[in-house]
Amino acid sequence: MDLNQWYEHAINPDAYIDNMQKNKENLLHIYDHFTPPEEDALIKRLKDKHLRAIVLTEDWCGDAMLNIPVLLRLSEQANIQVRMLLRDQNLELMDQYLTNGKSRSIPIFIFIDEDGNEVAKWGPRAEIVQEYVDESRKKLPPKESDDFDEKAKEMYMFMSKSFRDNPSFWQAVYESIKDALQ
What domains lie within the chain, and their CATH numbers? Predict the structure, then answer.
């Protein structure tokens, strides 16, 4: 399938959010509380491009919980139509957008023009969020430790709360997505 076909195959954000089982409340919290800056020159230029976005995601993903509501707010500003694909049901496309050529990290935002040509790709994290995740992972015990799973679960729970409650992360994601669209 080409990117236009993937876009047509995808679901709208409302249907995705309605069907969420895991991070719905946190995603909606960010959406309800994130206010993008006033429109700037880039947003005005994006409106004229009639872009669309394909989002590869899963509702259990904390990064998706953080990034999708920010994308949705940006898309409202810039008139970008957004559609969602579940990663695990769309590996053929996901495998074309591996992080570092090997990881099925999500979310991935694929921005396409009216003809279905890719104009930008973003994901899975803004740089400052990646640094935060890397620092958090450094504090984990070795994987072979008896308490690794417990500590990793605690770390992910704490990161999820940080993503939900830290507006500076929301702003960093917004700026990072805009940079990809320059």
Answer: 3-125+167-180 (3.40.30.10)
- Residues 36, 38, 44, 47, CA torsion sign: positive
Edge-to-edge strands of the sheet including 118-122?
A: 81-86, 52-57, 108-112, 118-122
- The residue ranges of DSSP E strands in the chain, in sequence order, are 52-57, 81-86, 108-112, 118-122
Beta strands 108-112 and 118-122: pairing type? antiparallel
DSSP code at position 59: T
- Give pLDDT tens digits for 49-99: 999 999 999 999 999 999 999 999 999 999 999 999 999 999 999 999 999
CA-to-CA distance for 166 and 162, rounded, in angstroms?
A: 6
Mean residue pLDDT across the chain: 96
pLDDT at residue 37 greater than cutoff 90: no
What's the one-letter identity of residue 43?
A: I
